[in-house]
TrEMBL record:
Organism: Pseudomonas reidholzensis
Pfam families per the UniProt record, alphabetical: HTH_30 (PF13556), PucR (PF07905)
Ranges of residues in domain PucR C-terminal helix-turn-helix: 425-483
Name of the molecule in the record: Transcriptional activator PmfR
InterPro entries recorded: CdaR-like_regulators (IPR051448), PucR_C-HTH_dom (IPR025736), PucR_C-HTH_sf (IPR042070), PucR_dom (IPR012914)
Domain Purine catabolism PurC-like: 7-123
Length: 495
């Protein structure tokens, strides 16, 4: 417990009584200092107790009021006057002003030396320091036990118990819990932090009107901060220790997450390219907790503005999946279909889901199923299963066999021409249609002269037998490109 003015009053050996200002009697004392100057507020600060023989107290009533006001504004904890010493005989104005401000004024018996008061505060501070040292020892004992065993939520709870305080780990951008399972910031602290003009979490103190909290960003992870409130032992030093322990745990979790992502990406690459035998694929999938009987492939197109956002979110949401990114395409193997809703919410975009994998060697087919399902997603229907793909995009193929036939009939000859001649007519066609047949924009994206683009488009029309000057030809070629994406056979890719 912190030492307060009330503790001095309650100590019979100090023979001190309260004249006025009982409201501030429970304020914590940082130190006690003797000062006989006319303006002690220049030398004392928050939490200090001013001890005086009364020599510096003015005799004029208005000056006595100003004397107390200056002390209160400097956040001095209280004023202790030695009894029967050199204070003015009439200090009623001082007492009245102190009563208005809730500023404690004490008087101490003549026989009690000021050093006894100082020693009492020093002894209490020593006891508090001993408690703080024991708290630090408990923190690092919790770190030793908790790292890798308790999980982040369990470690935060244990650290909070070690210092008898409330701890909240949160994302400074959204004020949401940093990880699923952590306690959310209470509403009053969300309002206090949300009202800040500039959010800075290097190290700060905030108030909700009744309570005080310390806020600090974790080392090397500025987007993650901790808010600590309550507890007599809590201060910046203790908070630094807590932040260091949590930063170590987060770095460990991040390292483990990156290792699992790497292993998952390698395994997905192996099964999609069929580098493994069925027994080997089954063994590795089971080892990474993705049994083929229930596992599904999920496909999403990533936002180009934040292509790596999903890695951070997977870690925060504690979703156990195998993932592989290729360009803007993210392939994820989930152990159970039930995880798909949380995954889509995390990614914030449409996702297509294959039928259950069933066997490791069926991964390429499952990927094509997920592509077809993704093609049928809409803003109102962001999750589509291959088995339940309906006709929101009725112009697209309804199954993989139909997708292969569709693109083969319309642009199959164009694909063959690119393969045989090393040309880029498929890519040129895609860019031209995506840019609504704008010659200027397409030329800039392809980085070619307009006449070169005109030549390529004419070759496309010659080879496919379809004109890009009429609606029928445009529609047929565009749907064929979408069908090629859905089927996504090895030979059906942009050259």
């Amino acid at each position: 417990m912190s030492f307060s003015i009330q503790d001095i009053i309650d100590n019979p050996a100090l023979r001190t009584r309260l004249l006025t200002g009982a409201q501030g009697a429970l304020s914590a004392l940082r130190w006690a200092h003797v000062c006989e100057l006319a303006d002690p507020s220049e030398w004392l600060g928050e939490g200090d107790l001013l001890m005086t023989t009364g020599m510096g107290i003015p005799r004029d009533a208005e000056q006595q009021r100003a004397y107390v006001i200056r002390l209160s504004e400097a956040r001095v904890a209280g004023l202790m006057i030695g009894e029967n010493m050199q204070a003015p005989d009439d200090i009623r104005a001082l007492q009245d002003q102190a009563s208005l401000l809730g500023f404690p004024v004490l008087t101490t018996h003549y026989s009690v030396p000021f050093s006894a008061v100082t020693k009492a505060i020093l002894d209490a501070r020593q006891q508090t320091e001993d408690q703080r040292r024991r708290a630090v020892v408990r923190l690092y004992e919790s770190a030793r036990i908790g790292l890798g065993h308790l999980g982040l939520s369990g470690l935060v709870s244990r650290l909070a118990a070690d210092v008898s305080a409330e701890l909240y780990l949160f994302d400074v951008r959204s004020l949401a819990p940093w990880e699923k399972g952590l306690a959310a910031l209470p509403e009053q602290w969300c309002k206090v932090l949300g009202a800040r003009a500039r959010l800075t979490y290097d190290l700060s103190r905030c108030h909700d009107g009744e309570h005080e909290a310390l806020v600090m960003a974790l080392p090397a992870l500025p987007e993650c901060a901790i808010l600590a409130t309550g507890g007599q032992l809590l201060d910046y030093g203790i908070l630094h220790h807590i932040a260091s322990v949590l930063a170590i745990e987060l770095e460990r979790v991040q390292g483990e997450h990156e290792r699992m992502l790497r292993l998952g990406s390698e395994l997905l690459d192996d099964v999609l390219n069929q580098r493994l035998s069925e027994p080997a694929a089954l063994a590795r999938l089971l080892q990474l907790a993705c049994p083929p009987a229930t596992a599904c492939l999920v496909l999403a197109k990533l936002d180009q503005a934040a292509p790596d956002h999903w890695q951070h979110e997977l870690s925060r949401q504690n979703l156990k999946v195998l993932a592989r990114q290729a360009g803007d395409e993210l392939v994820i193997l989930i152990a159970d279909h039930a995880a798909s809703a949380a995954l889509q919410s995390m990614l914030g975009c449409g996702v297509g889901i294959s039928a259950p994998l069933g066997a490791g060697l069926r991964a390429p087919e499952a990927l094509r199923e997920a592509r077809l399902a993704l093609a049928h997603t809409t803003p109102a229907r962001p999750i589509v299963d291959y088995a339940n793909a309906l006709d929101e995009a009725f112009w697209l193929p309804s199954d993989l066999a139909q997708a292969r036939r569709m693109y083969g009939r319309v642009i199959g000859s164009l694909i063959d021409y690119d393969v045989q001649n090393g040309s880029q007519l498929i890519h040129t066609l895609r860019v031209f249609l995506e840019q609504n047949r704008s010659w200027q924009k397409s030329s800039q994206i392809l980085n070619v002269h307009k006449q070169t683009l005109v030549y390529r488009i004419r070759r496309v029309e010659e080879i496919t037998g379809r004109s890009l000057d009429d609606t029928e030809g445009v529609v047929a070629l565009w749907i064929a490109l979408r069908a090629m994406d859905i089927a996504a056979d090895g030979q059906a890719s942009d050259c």
